[in-house]
Amino acid sequence: MAFYQYKQEQKVKASMEEVWDFISSPRNLKEITPDYMGFDITSTDIPEKMYPGMIITYEVKPLLGIKTPWMTEITQVKELEFFIDEQRVGPYKLWHHQHFIEPIKGGVLMRDIVTYSPPFGFLGALANKLIIRKKLNEIFDYRTLAVNKKFGQYEK
Questions:
Q1: How many Cβ atoms sit within 10 Å of the Cβ of residue 132?
Q2: pLDDT of residue 146
Q3: Which domains does the chain have, with CATH numbers?
């Protein structure tokens, strides 16, 4: 089983509280996900803020428009610092996503570390090389644009 890591950083022109309030609300996930992913939260009664142990269910269309169920658990939360979500049911053998924020001059640095393992052994490794890595780049590029649109372009 092959493991991969995807890392992303973004500087945001906002306060720690503004960024935290935005990223820690599951309701905002759709806003930062490309439309073609067909992202829909299927959980009912989603609270305003996440908490450790929270389960969130979605439907996504990651490939060829095929609806795929996805369930994540918020495993750790440290207010104004980080949270971690892990896939419990979904398209990957492993999905562990760490979201960090820290203050910088003029704003906030958001850092993401995604550790993942595609299914299907050798075929999954090939899919990562040909498709998955590019999709992750597209998704995070979209998120960068969406966050910049919400908070404004970061300036040094």
A1: 21
A2: 97
A3: 4-151 (3.30.530.20)
